[in-house]
Amino acid sequence: MTPTGRSRVALIGCGRIARVHRSYLEKIANVDLVGVFDVDRSSREAFVSGSALPAFSSVEELLATARPDVAHVLTPPATHAPVAKVLLAAGVNALVEKPLAMSAAEADEVMAAAKQSGAWVSVDHNRFFDPVVQRAAAVVESGRLGDILGVDVFQGAEVGEADKMLGTSDDWRVNLPGGILHNLASHPLYLMRRFAGPVSQIEVVATELAAGKLSEARLIARGERCLATVAISARTQPFMNRLSIYGSAGTIEVNLNNMTFISRRTRKLPKLIGKVWPNVDEARQLLGSTTSNTIEYLRGKQGFYPGIGVHLAKLYASLATGGPPPVTAEEGRDVVAWYDQILTAAGIAVPTATAVS
């Protein structure tokens, strides 16, 4: 960070998610975007076309010339840890797209590199920062749910994603260890950790869709706050992406696809009304969420991946005051370690380290 409290930021990887990061970074007052790199020349040139933003032909050139304080690692997951270690060795802070690494062992190497260099490493656990999830977190912290007794998270896949894994594909998501779920599993795992607390015990069962391709996984965990379950599915349709939080005084259900929020509380009502009112109340809440989301989108106040925008705003606000990143490396490491357990339960080999290309 410069003496003026501004952060010089670089992007490594110029794909779709990099465009999302760029759009939000350009709205943060104390951030200067100073350069980008992608191994594909056409991608990096297209990314900076029509702007003064410089594109570099290597990570080393970017670091030497642009001198970033922070670099966002927005490359495919297999390269996250190798690229992060290069950045950390150069004393550059690293914000890594999920997952932090391809295995717990690789995550340990990244954390060791951060400790040695004095730079920090963090992970973009963006779903936690979606406004609807932040609302859920605020309700939990307010105590309105009473004691938190359970957390359930379900992560599905879009129509046709599982079918891609049964054939040949050059899609990096399909070719991850375990297939497309390797790219998706981080979300329910970090949400479970955030709401249930650090986990002391976890049990996993999982099945394959095909050789080396994960189909279904179920986890049950003992968190510091409560018990929790995570369900991950490549085949369940329709596509579901849901967070449920159960308390002694109420429950919350968040639809992470539609960004809707339902709160349920016990009310003393006449028997007949008591049977009807919960449905009416849920319909009212769904209509309200849908209407407000539509208005926010049309007014340009809610874009794609809103959690990334909230996370980046919080990250750079914290850095400006000398605070820590909102997501710790330990959280990222836990998520990777649990995915190791999922792969093992399905009989799929945990990947070894990947070299930087």
Description:
39% of the residues lie in helices and 23% in strands. The chain is of the alpha/beta class and 357 residues long. It has a seven-stranded mixed β-sheet. Strands 3-2-1-4-5-6 form a six-stranded parallel β-sheet, with helices on both faces. The longest helix is centred in the C-terminal third of the chain and has 28 residues, at 271-298. The model has no long low-confidence stretch (mean pLDDT 92).
Which regions are unreliable across 5 or more consecutive residues at pLDDT < 50? none
Number of separate strands: 13
| Order of the strands making up the biggest sheet | 8-9-10-7-11-12-13
Radius of gyration: 21 Å
Q: What gap, in angstroms, lies between the N and C termini?
A: 28 Å
Q: DSSP helix count?
A: 12
CATH architecture of the largest domain, please?
Answer: 2-Layer Sandwich
Named CATH topology of the largest domain:
Dihydrodipicolinate Reductase, domain 2
Topology as a string of helices (H) and strands (E): EHEHEHEHEHEHEHHHEEEEEEHHH
Structural class label: alpha/beta
Strand content: 15-25%
The helix content is 25-40%
How many domains make up the coordinates?
Answer: 2
Main beta-sheet strand count, sense and barrel state: 7 strands, mixed
Name of the level-1 CATH class of the largest domain: Alpha Beta
Give the overall pLDDT as a whole number: 92
Gross morphology is: globular
The CATH superfamily of the largest domain is Dihydrodipicolinate Reductase, domain 2
